[in-house]
């Protein structure tokens, strides 16, 4: 990763360690210190290292106990009032940038659940309110580009498991397509900047492969038992 850091001509300006560690209530200060030291040994002294936790004092205290980290919070348009969220962050660690490291413009899907779709106007209105609130505010949209959890990398939060697709109803879809949500977010940002947006590439042509009929072969657990015995 080091060759992709900003100081080396790359695009990476910040590196997050752990993810919402404060939510797991382990609160291992030694672990967070050693993790920070390890990252610095590999990445050097010029990159910003930060944590990302929910907007409450208890979560921040547990997830970002080492003051060498830039503490950030994550929240969506309806999580809590912006004033309330950044007051929590300011009370926890004063005089640092206010960063929403996960501004939720969509949501993930789980096995057996419905596909989540968020209103584009809802997402862009919240974004506009957020970036208009203060010059100290910095925003990272999550997710800006949908992706795929290949193989068994989907993970989850008990008792639910995420599906393979991580499209997230993001502004740029899992297939790399521009969506209406992308267009109105782009219009907002370029309007605030006072410049005209560049021309966009066309979305890729899609093909319908028709109906695929599946034939039952066996149960997954039966296969696991057989393969485990053979190995």
Automatic annotation (TrEMBL):
Q: Name the Gene3D superfamilies for this protein.
A: Galactose-binding domain-like, Glycosidases
**Top-rank lineage group of the source organism:** Eukaryota
UniProt keyword list:
Glycosidase, Hydrolase
Can you give the residue ranges of the Glycoside hydrolase 35 catalytic domain? 1-189
The record's Gene Ontology biological-process terms are:
carbohydrate metabolic process
Q: Which PROSITE patterns match?
A: GLYCOSYL_HYDROL_F35
| InterPro entries named among the record's database cross-references | GH (IPR017853), Gly_Hdrlase_35_cat (IPR031330), Glyco_hydro_35_CS (IPR019801), Glycoside_Hdrlase_35 (IPR001944)
Q: GO: which molecular function terms?
A: hydrolase activity, hydrolyzing O-glycosyl compounds
Family of this protein: Belongs to the glycosyl hydrolase 35 family.
- State what protein this is by name: Glyco_hydro_35 domain-containing protein
Q: What is the lineage of its organism?
A: Eukaryota, Metazoa, Spiralia, Lophotrochozoa, Platyhelminthes
């Amino acid at each position: 990763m080091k060759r992709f850091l900003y100081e080396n001509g790359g695009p990476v300006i910040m590196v997050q360690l752990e993810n919402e560690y404060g939510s797991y209530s382990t609160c291992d200060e030694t672990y967070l210190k050693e993790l920070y030291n390890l990252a610095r040994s590999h990445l050097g002294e010029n990159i910003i290292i930060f944590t990302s936790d929910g907007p409450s004092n208890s979560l921040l205290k547990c997830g970002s106990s080492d003051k060498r980290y830039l503490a950030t919070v994550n929240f969506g348009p309806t999580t809590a009032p912006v004033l309330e969220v950044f007051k929590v962050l300011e009370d926890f660690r004063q005089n640092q940038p206010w960063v929403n490291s996960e501004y939720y413009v969509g949501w993930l899907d789980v096995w057996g659940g419905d596909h989540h779709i968020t209103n584009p106007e809802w997402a862009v209105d919240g974004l506009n309110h957020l970036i208009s609130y203060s010059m100290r505010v910095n925003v990272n949209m999550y997710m800006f580009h949908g992706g795929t959890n290949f193989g068994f990398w989907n993970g989850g939060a008990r008792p639910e498991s995420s599906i393979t697709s991580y499209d997230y109803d993001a502004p740029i879809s899992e297939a790399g397509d521009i969506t209406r949500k992308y267009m109105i977010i782009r219009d907002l940002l370029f309007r605030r900047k006072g410049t005209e947006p560049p021309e966009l590439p066309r979305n890729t042509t899609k093909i319908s492969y028709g109906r695929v009929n599946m034939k039952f072969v066996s149960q997954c657990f039966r296969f696991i038992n057989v393969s485990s015995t053979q190995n």
